[in-house]
Amino acid sequence: MRDDSYRHKGLRKKMILELKEKGISDEKILNAFDLIPRHFFLDLAFVEKAYTNMAFQIGAKQTISHPFTVGFQTQLLNLKKGEKVLEIGTGSGFQTCILCCLGARVYSVERQKQLHLTAQKIIDDLGYSPKLFYGDGYKGLNAFMPFDKILVTCGAPNVPELLKKQLKVGGILVIPIGDGDSQTMKKITKVSENEYQEEDFGVFRFVPMLERKAK
Ligand code: SAH
C-alpha cells in the first residue's frame, strides 16, 4: 500500500477547506474526505496534484471525478447510515469509498474490466467492503433491488428506466443528464411507485455513460 504522509494529510485539510468554501457543508462528508487518501486512487504521476480540485485520467480513457463533484453528488444523496446504495461507474473507486465511509452498504458497477479490477484492489487495501460488479450500469442490479439511493457518476443521455424502477419509494437518484460536453445534475425523488419529482442542480462535466460492458 502507498504511503499516507503528513504532507498528504495536510493537503487533504486544505482541500477540505476549499470544499467548504464551495458549499459542501455536511461535516460527515468532509470527514470522509479527510479519512480517504485520494492520492491512492491516482496514477503515481499525479500524486502531487491529488488534492487539487481537478479530474484526472485513471486509465481506459476515464477520469476520477473532481473532489467537489464527489462532495456535491454525495450531499444530494442525503445518506443515512446503513442505507443501500447503488453506484454506476466505480471508476477509480474513490467515490465508492466515500460512500462506504459514510456507513452505506454499497453496490457499484463498472463497465471497464481493468478499472473494476484496479478499484477492487485499492478498496480491499483500504479495508472497505462494497460489492463491486463488472457490468452495464444501464441495467442497474436487479438481483439486489430495491435501493435507498442510486448515484450515477457518468453523463447519461436520459434517465434509465431500470434505475428508476430499482429505487425504493422515498428513494433518491442523483444523475447527470445530457449527451453533449456538459450535463445537468438531477436529483430525482421517487414519490410513489409511478411518480417522480425532479430537481436541477447546475451544470457539470462527466465522461459519458455508455451501453454494454467493455472488454
Ligand atoms: N466514481 C468514479 C467516477 C469515474 S468516471 C470515480 O470517483 O473515480 C465514470 C465511470 O463510469 C467510468 O469509469 C466509466 O467507465 C463508467 N461507466 C460509463 N458507462 C457505464 C455503464 N453503462 N455502466 C457502468 N459504468 C459505466
Explain what you see.
- The model has no long low-confidence stretch (mean pLDDT about 95).
- About 40% of the residues are buried.
- With about 220 residues, the protein is of the alpha/beta class.
- The chain has one domain: Rossmann fold (3-Layer(aba) Sandwich), CATH 3.40.50.150.
- It contains six helices and nine strands.
- The longest helix has 16 residues, at about 5-20.
- Strands 5-4-3-6-7-8-9 form a seven-stranded mixed beta sheet.
- The protein starts with 5 loop residues before the first helix and ends in an 11-residue tail after the last strand.
- Bound molecules: S-adenosyl-L-homocysteine.
- S-adenosyl-L-homocysteine (SAH) binds next to strand 2, helix 4 and strand 4.
